[in-house]
Amino acid sequence: MADPNTPRRAPRPKIARPRPAQAAAPAAAPVAPTADRIAKVLARAGAASRRDAEKMILAGRVAVNGAIIDSPALNVTARDKITLDGAPLAEPGAARLWLYHKPSGLVTTTRDEKGRKTVFDTLPADMPRVLSVGRLDLNSEGLLLLTNDGAIKRRLELPSTGWVRKYRVRVKGAPLDPMFAPLRRGITVDGERFQPMAVTLDRQQGANAWLTIALREGRNREIRRAMDYVGLTVNRLIRISYGPFQLGELPAGAVEEIKPRILRDQLGLNDADADDTGRAKPRRPAKGPQKGARGRPGRG
After folding, report:
1. What pLDDT score does 267 carry?
2. Which residue among 52, 80, 112, 137 is the active-site one?
3. CATH architecture, range 97-246
């Protein structure tokens, strides 16, 4: 047993051991601004489609940092100063989409060499610069989509998007349903292949018949040329839907903007997909039935 009178040893002092020196974190390398083709930047700003932007460049209408460029093979960043026809290129805003009921007798171009009235001449004065998604020819009418975003225009025009365009078509004569069998299989007109289209014979009305036609491509005057192939003449053509967006009761010449929430839902836009400009990038739109732009299920 330990003697209580024996003095206790003093505890050893704790010696602080030096910690190994930590290497200083390397300084973060500066992030280079993202570069894009000049035509893509022009399209994103709503100045024109990418194809038309290339034509603008070749025409000497575009300058970068004060120097006119003559080739679209140029990458630019947000630091570059771009002008179009001497005016600074507008900053890209939020992507927007409108429904427009095109009347017959208007051309779907920004300029017409024959001096005819264009759809853009009839739009409200407070609308921003917009581009048409596809075209309707002079004598066609109905739904035309308009957007301020060149990337959305391009995406919605691609056949790979898979959106159906539906038309009400009046033809002269009294056709029978078997006449449309070649169109449902797909035909070749003047060396150009037309994909199969859905054709429904709705009713006979006097000397004319009404049809409903649905297709996934929009070739130049495709429906008129297809009807001519089977011996029919189109005397009225109305586009009633483009994917989930429907003409509905929109009056001729009227414009209606799609609500941002519906635009995001239909085009697959979200903040996680924002590009270097802060704008949302469109993903491939859904092909299945979606809630339509006017609050009804889309019927293609």
Report:
1. 82
2. 137
3. 2-Layer Sandwich (3.30)
